[in-house]
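Q: Given only this backbone (126 positions), what sequence would you predict?
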């Protein structure tokens, strides 16, 4: 394979969209086990990218909106997620809509919502 010059690489990057370039940076970081945080921070940021970054949340609440038909299964899942006692978990499920988890990361919120939905509950992630 022919080696590309720096000018050739820059010409290729000019043709890429911001999303394609972002995906490339992630792949580069994974492949070579490096972080390009300084380069990204120094790059000029357009208003669309700045607005996108502001909208992205890092803390989520999992709110139980309804227990559904399988109330006992939902109570079991609530107990697993929160380590509440039986009475507290039952009261939470009976008092829906109520938050089950608050200020958790996106991954935890999605897993909790899937577990609750799997048990027959209706859930919102806020």
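A: Predicted residues:
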């Amino acid at each position: 394979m022919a080696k590309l010059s720096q000018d050739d690489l820059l010409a290729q990057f000019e043709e890429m969209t911001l999303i394609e370039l972002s995906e490339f940076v992630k792949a580069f970081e994974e492949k070579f086990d490096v972080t390009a945080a300084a380069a990204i921070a120094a790059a000029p940021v357009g208003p669309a990218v700045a607005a996108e970054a502001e909208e992205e949340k890092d803390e989520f609440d999992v709110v139980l909106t309804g227990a559904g038909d399988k109330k006992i299964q939902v109570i079991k899942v609530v107990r697993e997620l929160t380590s509440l006692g039986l009475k507290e978990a039952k009261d939470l499920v009976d008092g829906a809509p109520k938050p089950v988890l608050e200020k958790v990361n996106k991954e935890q919120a999605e897993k909790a919502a899937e577990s609750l939905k799997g048990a027959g509950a209706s859930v919102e992630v806020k």
